[in-house]
Amino acid sequence: MTKIIAAVSACFVACAALAQAYPSRPVRVVVPFAPGGPNDIIVRLVTPKLAESLGQAFVVENRAGAGGNIGTEYVAKSAPDGHTLLSVGPGSLIINPLIGKAGYDTERDFAPISLMARAPNALVAHPSLPARSVAELIALARARPGAINYASGGEGSTPHLAAALFASMAGVALTHVPYKGTAPATTDLIGGQVQIAFLGVPAVLPHIRSGRLRVLAVTGLRRSPELPDVPTVSESGVPGYEVSPWYGLLAPAGTSRAIVAKLALEATRIVRAPETSEKLSQQGAEAAGSTPEEYAAVIRADTSTLTGIVVALKPTR
């Protein structure tokens, strides 16, 4: 027994020493989508502060493709030393495994660190679309089944699920056009190559304000503080509709608990600080922050909720 206690004590001492020395070199934070999406925008507000507090560079690296699978799988297979992290939302972390197109298992392959922020999606349209409300969009889609195209950040992404859920609940047929991230989807929406999209508020807010995109509704349970006059989808004629994405940090499974706890403490402190919280709010996002255990519980709860939706919708191109 004495030997066991000694061994456990030595382990704790080693973990504490490892956490104290961490990070020992620059940290790579992988975003599994193209630059310019809400995930990318949010993590780039947090990483400079992490670098400042932890004394090493935190470099954001965009690894887009396969609806977020490429970058997410890359992190899952990276060394569990805290120097490669994942910044992600529920699309590639939960939805892709549910539809059977992921080369990783979220619960087995990742160590949740902390939630950074929550941000609803916005139902936005190209100004040429003759619909200025959700009701008018539904009427138009019913009159022209399949004629309205919607963009997403990739098959299985949150914008894809949001649009598929809307089409199902509203009883309309829409045509999916997947991209390698929110930014290229937004570019083609602005250019009129597609007509609508359910994209993260942080990514489309500047284009809404400039008039290049028309916002019809937001997907959360509440209106966005940055778009107080814009109704939710639920209050616009699709009662019960709600999609509220979150964005968080994870490490590969097997990463030291001490390192995970250290990162969670710093990330939570940073996002809840008035300066960062205000910047997130200006982007249409709400600061979160959490312990690793709280974040893991969110992932489990949303996996349970989304399983039924994904099975019912069976998202396809």
Verbal overview:
This protein has 317 residues and is an alpha/beta fold. The protein folds into two domains: 164 residues, 3-Layer(aba) Sandwich (D-Maltodextrin-Binding Protein, domain 2); 116 residues, D-Maltodextrin-Binding Protein, domain 2 (3-Layer(aba) Sandwich), CATH 3.40.190.10. Helices cover 47% and strands 18% of the residues. It contains twelve helices and eleven strands. The strands form two sheets. A six-stranded mixed β-sheet has the order 2-1-3-10-4-11, with helices on both faces. It has a five-stranded mixed β-sheet with strand order 7-6-8-5-9. Helix 2 packs across helix 10. The radius of gyration is 20 Å and the shape is globular. The protein starts with a helix and ends with a helix.
Structural features:
5-stranded mixed β-sheet; D-Maltodextrin-Binding Protein, domain 2; globular; single chain; 317 residues; alpha/beta; 18% strand; 2 domains
